[in-house]
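Budget justification aside, the reviewers requested a transparent look at the raw inputs and outputs of the sequence design task funded under Objective 1. We therefore reproduce one unedited record. The lines immediately below are the structure tokens for a 336-residue chain.
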């Protein structure tokens, strides 16, 4: 009897231990109905309630918004509605807001709720705002938690939501001339990023996509320099820290599904094999990229069609490259 009792107690203890463990649900891209995005100009989409050339909704001086303002806001798609001259990677990934004109996220099969801000860095603790109205990454998350989540919680199922973060492009450029130990400095920035990630996890979101840096060492301006800035080593330091922090986040939050997509490796491959992607120019860009009829008559500006360039301007890649990237990200997500 004592032996049986001991076995029974052990079984109960084991049962309690198992039931108390965090429950992890496998991520399924096919079942994903919502994407919530944070970041900078590589990710922002123009909204009817957003600042022009900056954001889907609000800015630093118009930080709050109502439920009605959020739900009636629409994604704008035209030549100036992104930093790429056309749809960007999150629009291609979700299929939301791709067509010219206006689109409500609510009307999309995969809804896109985008809080990225063009020109954003992670935090003013480390780098200044590009403009006094810029909303930094940690502020984007604060804005989302305070003003968007109370509304989206009625619409969005966290188990069928992917939360995407692509940040660091401005941080590494803005700090390139700092007199700091860059690996340690980048680690501080990315620690701040993951403090924001944790706050999103803490309200129930579990699926996270992190994008590392594009090949900023190969921008049109950098390829002309003997010593590019940022250089390949700096980019690798950043990307290594991002991966390390993601693994720590995963270990500390066992029910999370975090993934890092290696943007840098993939886009370097695109630049190395442009013919495969119908790209003819990987080192320059059309100087008239922002002219009103550049898409209709690029030859009149002395340019190739913009889709035949890798770079839209000195800091951003073309919509065509974003489309290529989004297809690869989708394949990556299907394998998770």
């Amino acid at each position: 009897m004592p032996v049986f009792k001991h076995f029974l107690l052990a079984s109960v203890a084991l049962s309690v231990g198992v039931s108390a463990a965090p429950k992890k649900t496998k991520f399924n891209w096919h079942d994903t109905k919502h994407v919530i995005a944070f970041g900078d100009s590589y990710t922002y989409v123009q909204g009817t309630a957003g600042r022009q050339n900056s954001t889907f909704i609000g800015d630093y001086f118009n930080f709050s918004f109502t439920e009605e303002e959020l739900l009636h806001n629409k994604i704008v798609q035209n030549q100036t509605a992104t930093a790429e001259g056309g749809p960007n990677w999150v629009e291609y990934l979700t299929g939301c807001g791709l067509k010219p004109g206006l689109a409500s996220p609510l009307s999309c099969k995969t809804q896109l709720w985008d809080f990225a801000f063009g020109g954003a860095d992670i935090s003013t603790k480390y780098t200044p705002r590009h403009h006094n109205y810029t909303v930094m990454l940690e502020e984007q998350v604060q804005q989302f938690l305070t003003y968007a989540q109370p509304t989206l919680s009625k619409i969005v199922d966290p188990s069928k939501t992917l939360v995407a973060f692509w940040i660091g492009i401005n941080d590494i450029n803005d700090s390139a001339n700092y007199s700091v130990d860059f690996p340690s400095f980048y680690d501080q920035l990315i620690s701040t990023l993951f403090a924001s990630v944790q706050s999103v996890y803490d309200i129930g979101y579990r699926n996270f996509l992190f994008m590392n840096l594009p090949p900023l060492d190969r921008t049109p301006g950098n390829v002309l320099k003997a010593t590019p800035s940022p250089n390949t080593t700096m980019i690798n330091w950043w990307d290594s820290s991002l991966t390390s922090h993601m693994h720590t986040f995963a270990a500390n939050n066992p029910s999370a599904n975090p993934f890092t997509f290696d943007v840098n490796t993939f886009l370097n491959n695109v630049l190395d094999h442009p013919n495969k992607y119908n790209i003819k120019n990987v080192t320059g860009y059309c100087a008239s990229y922002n002219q009103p009829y550049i898409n209709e008559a690029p030859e009149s500006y002395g340019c190739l069609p913009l889709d035949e360039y890798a770079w839209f301007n000195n800091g951003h890649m073309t919509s065509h490259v974003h489309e290529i990237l989004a297809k690869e990200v989708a394949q990556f997500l299907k394998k998770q």
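The beta strands are 34-39, 49-50, 57-58, 75-77, 101-103, 111-114, 161-166, 207-211, 257-261. The chain has a mean pLDDT of 94. Computational costs for records of this kind are itemized in the attached budget.
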